[in-house]
Structures are given as structure tokens and as C-alpha cells.
Amino acid sequence: MRSPQSFGPPQSDQLERQIAHCHGLAKDAAERGEISAAAKLILTALDHERRLAARSPQVLQLIKPRG
User: Fold this and answer.
1) How confident is the model at residue 52 (pLDDT cuts 50, 70, 90)?
2) Which distant-in-sequence residues (6+ apart) come within 8 Å of 6 by Cβ?
3) Spatial distance between the Cα atoms of 63 and 60, rounded to a whole number of angstroms
4) How high is the pLDDT of residue 3?
5) Between 40 and 58, where is the model more confident?
6) Sign (positive or negative) of CA dihedral 34, 37, 41, 43
7) Cα distance between residue 45 and residue 55, in whole Å
8) Cα 48 to chain center, whole Å?
9) Can you say how many angstroms the Cα of residue 2 is from the centroid of all Cα atoms in its chain?
10) Is 58 exposed, middle or buried (0-12, 13-18, 19+ CB in 10 A)?
11) Which of 55, 40, 58, 49 is nearest to 20 (CA)?
């Protein structure tokens, strides 16, 4: 059972792990001077973050109209 704070399908946890992994790899690549590889990893992490944000309910979807 998922906690009430977790929104979206179970893949959200997987996306969060992938984001953290990409950030770690990007940091390591940047420290080695592999700027191109670091940039690609950062873009991959940003794509995962965008997909994760799209899975959670949007604020306007949570507001109920008065009526």
C-alpha cells in the first residue's frame, strides 16, 4: 500500500531513483572533465523530473468549483 502523500502510479519511485542516479553520474562526469557526458546526464535527469511532475495532480485539478 502506498502512502497518501505519494501521487501517481508506482513508477514515481522509480523515476525519483533514476533522477538521483543521473545527478550522481553527472557530478562524477563533470569532476572528470567530461562536460558533454555531464550535460547529457543532466538533460536526462530533467526529462525524468518533467515526467514525474506530469504524474502528480495539478493544482487546478485539486480546486473544486463552487456551486
Assistant:
1) confident
2) 12, 13
3) 5
4) 46
5) 40
6) positive
7) 16
8) 4
9) 18
10) exposed
11) 49
User: Cβ(25)–Cβ(41) under 8 Å?
Assistant: yes
Contact residues for 12 (Cβ-Cβ < 8 A; gap 6+): 6, 52, 55, 56
**One-letter identity of residue 46:** L
Residue where the block lists cell 562526469 = 29
Tens digit of pLDDT for each residue in 10-20?
588 898 999 99
Query: How many CB atoms within 10 Å of residue 40?
Result: 15
Residues 49 and 12: beta-carbon distance below 8 Å: no
Is there a contact between 52 and 19 (Cβ–Cβ < 8 Å)? yes
What mean pLDDT is reported for the chain? 81
